[in-house]
Amino acid sequence: MKLRRILLLICLVPLLAANVSAADVDDFLYSEVVFLRGIELGAGGRALALGGAYRALSDDLSALYWNPAGLASVRRIEMSLGLSQATTMDDATLQNETISNQLSRTRLNELGIVFPFPTYRGSLVFAVGYHQVQSFDAFGTFVDTGSEPEFEGDELESGSLGLWSLGMAIDISPAVSVGLSLRYWSGFNDYSYAEELNWETNDWYTYKQSLDLDLSGFNAITGIVARPYNWLRIGASLETPLRLKIKENWSSAEDANDLDYYSASGSYEYKLGRSFRGGLGAAVLLGPVIISSDIVVTDWSQTAFRSDPSFTAYTKEEANLEITRRLHPTIDLHFGTEVWIPKSPIRLQAGYARYPSPFEDDELITDKNVFSGGINVLLDQALLVQSTVSWTSWERSLYGWAEDLQMSHLLITLAYRF
CA spacing 20 to 30 A to 399: which of 161, 233, 234, 384? Predict the structure, then answer.
């Protein structure tokens, strides 16, 4: 989010001419680098229920996101549809005053088809689909009634990032599958901010700002799944750099009892790139129990603007230098387990994921912790119903304004097998 950018620019520009604090730089990076905002939980109900520990499994449509090699395990035509309901609780604190807000959004999470082709031996599978994988939802109210002037600011951010994928997988040996997925990313991030200051003298001041971002880009992911033993699967994936084109429309307005109303608006376009991302996972199959784990490595220090950012205080070169200085590689951890209830069509899942902060100083944004659980039921050997819930918590402190964020996520997925 470009949080309170136009208002704070007045204060920040003089600092840039002198010594900008590390906190100011971190605030700028978080505001301008859209990859750092929100949370990317990934795709698919079963995968989310397993905490994202899915690269060694990936035997459904969501393999297009996690590891396309897993598509080779699909033996029947399968159509999938998923809807998600995400609710974000935002406890915003300013000068020891805390206000709680709630924001709910219902979105399409998954839609697509997996199509296995008949082969003499092995497997050849194609898939096409859409997945919504990242959300940018938050709603904070900041209040300071103990100072002069009294202050109230409302900040609303809503948006998501998804991808359309076309992928395929093939068995290159009885124990090894490989796959490839081509992906078009698209999304939006709508941000609005409004503040009001009131003095005991009945003077007042208001300020409003809105920023609407349209996001689009391309990349690809390739993967491999090995089955050295009947009880063991190993999966690995490599995602090529993602290049996003960002179209920004902005507007601002201010008014006061002793000032003329003023407004401004404009648009800007720039490009932002994320580096390679690699994942490695393993799954152990012990009768009715599956235990899986993944690690994902992202080098955030290689994130780079491909053109000047919209925040005019930095050039492309200056912004990229600060990215290299302030961001560092992270290793995401994912764990999950699934239990099949014998003599029933029911499977239960539980998972945990940890997403470390990419900042050298994690006071701006803390590590994100995700706990999840799910249940799926196979009806008439054709319709698979998956229900998943997850809880994510983290904190952030941007420009000294503190927020405690918690997101609950309900995902219902239906998959019909022909």
Answer: 161
Q: CATH number of the domain at 132, please.
A: 2.40.160.60
Q: Three-state SS for 366?
A: coil
Q: b or e along 139-176 (b: 16 or more beta carbons within 10 Å of the residue's beta carbon)?
A: bbbbbbeeeeeebbbbbbbbbbbbbbbbbbbbbeeeeb
pLDDT in tens, 358-378: 997 667 889 999 999 999 999
The residue segments making up the domain with residue 270 are 5-417
Residue 362 burial (CB < 10 Å; 0-12/13-18/19+)?
middle
pLDDT in tens, 96-117: 888 999 999 999 999 999 999 9
Distance of CA 33 to the CA centre of its chain: 13
Give the chain's domain count: 1
pLDDT, average across residues 120-141: 93
Which one-letter DSSP state was computed for residue 28? H
Contacts of residue 21, defined as CB under 8 A and 6 or more positions apart, other chains included, come to 15
How far is it, in rounded angstroms, from Cα 113 to Cα 236?
23
For residue 20, CA distances in Å to 2, 15, 50, 237 come to 18, 5, 42, 39
